[in-house]
Amino acid sequence: MSDENLSLEDENRIKKAFKKLDWHEIKSTNSWALFKIMSEFVDGFDKLARIGPCVSIFGSARTTPDNPYYKIAEEIAAKLVDLGYGIITGGGPGIMEAGNKGAKSRGGKSVGINIILPFEQTSNPYIDPDKLITFDYFFVRKVMFVKYAQGFVVMPGGFGTLDELFEALTLIQTKKIGRFPIVLVGKSYWGGLIDWLKNTVLAQEKNINAEDLNLFSLVDTADEAVEVIDNFYTQYLLQPNF
């Protein structure tokens, strides 16, 4: 009996995963996938290597312009541009649009790293035309976010935002990449998650170390978010340099 929660497309994907392929089919399929993945990496590296220091802003694609978090994201982006940073977003609507809009309003570099999805994701109009890149693969896109960002600003969002947040935290925690500031914006939104990390993940199960909770900052305002990033680099006598 079919699970009523599965669409026909889901069922077909499951069946396809169990289908036996001969070597020719495997080799042909994998080879084309590898070429596509390589081309996305090359295109991303080529375009993003020239943009200079940037901050990535994450958050829900569903956030509307009248939402207070949209306004805060737009303000954060504008203030960061005034300090010399460019802005990278996922290139879509919602918080991503707010970030690019804020960067554009100050004449800063406005980068969109878009993804092809069956819903939600269309590029917003505030991205610099030469800095819009569209990917098929989420994992390639995530590499670009981390490799070319000097900081993460994480606004309220859903699964995709959580994915980006924990990807960055894991890479820093395991020392696969250098430390950079991660700022969560919205104490009421993120408070429950942080309480769970402290009380369950750390205190009860001991699945992280106490110092891992210092890998991010929690703020409520645009000024606080920008201050965290600015202070982080000021203490190391580093300045963004376009």
TrEMBL record:
Pfam families: Lysine_decarbox (PF03641)
EC number, as in UniProt: 3.2.2.n1
Protein family per UniProt: Belongs to the LOG family.
First-tier enzyme category under EC: hydrolase
Protein name, per record: Cytokinin riboside 5'-monophosphate phosphoribohydrolase
Xref: NCBIfam families: Rossman fold protein, TIGR00730 family
GO cellular component: cytosol
Annotated InterPro entries: LOG (IPR005269), LOG_fam (IPR031100), LOG_family_nucleotidases (IPR052341)
Keywords: Cytokinin biosynthesis, Hydrolase
Keyword Hydrolase in record: yes
GO molecular function, one term: AMP nucleosidase activity
Reaction catalysed by this enzyme: AMP + H2O = D-ribose 5-phosphate + adenine
GO biological process: cytokinin biosynthetic process
Signal sequence segment: none
Gene3D superfamilies named in the record: 3.40.50.450
Superkingdom to which the source organism belongs: Bacteria
